[in-house]
Design goal:
- There is one protein chain.
- By secondary structure, the protein is α/β, with parallel strands linked by helices.
- It has 2 domains: 62 residues, Alpha-Beta Plaits; 132 residues, 3-Layer(aba) Sandwich (Rossmann fold).
- It has 8 helices and 10 strands.
- The strands form 3 sheets. Strands 7-6-8-9-10 form a 5-stranded parallel beta sheet.
- β8, α6 and β9 form a beta-alpha-beta unit.
- The N and C termini lie far apart (46 Å).
Amino acid sequence: MITTPLLSILRARGKQKYRTLKYPNGSPPLPDRFLGKPVISSTSCPKDCTLCITSCPVAAIQKTETLHIDMGVCLFCGNCVEACPNGTIRFSKDFHLASQDRGSLVIQQREGGDNVQESTVPSPRRDKIQLFRKSFKLRQVSAGGCNACELDCNVLSTVAWDMGRFGIQFVASPRHADGILVTGPVTENMKVALEKTYRAVPSPKVVIAVGSCAISGGPYKDHPEQMNGVSSLLPVDLFIPGCPPHPLVILEGLLRFLGRI
């Protein structure tokens, strides 16, 4: 006999239907305000880029021979888009931002057209990654973050994203992990804790830097009480830029890193 409370649960479940996103089988809808990979147009770029450069609060935009944007530093605030009177810089809806190579996060302006640089994760190091393709456990370390990147990482464990279906999970102990996922600029107070956590992870192990703080120090860059990101202490295997990165950016980076897509 089915009781009334159970019937209510079944009815609610029927109305909710299947809530988990179909990604990577098709791209999920992105919010209108989503800012993805930056695009630099050379056709409308004036000789003087002072407005774009000075509008950036973290000096992610620089110009040598050509204009370039460092996504590892960029806060994706959109100030440069508003400041540029010629529409030289815009942000696309491209969410393929993660990279194993720190240098690939720099978007260069190309002569004769828009930049067409592909910011994708190169082929993983098979001697290490092949072990983790179907089961990848991570210990998340908040090394002085503001909790924005941490929240978007936590979202991946919810019903809508359910990264567990890919064998990716956050675990409580570094001794049960295949690597660490670090957010925050690595403050002095967290330096020793991060190093101890890294040493506790059995080899071979992976280090993932999520967010501009973990990659470069973010808005706290060069402050004496932080380390300008994880790379100053540990070898980083995967960089996922953003402030904070959208959950889709994080998930896409992890899946491509593992060779799952």
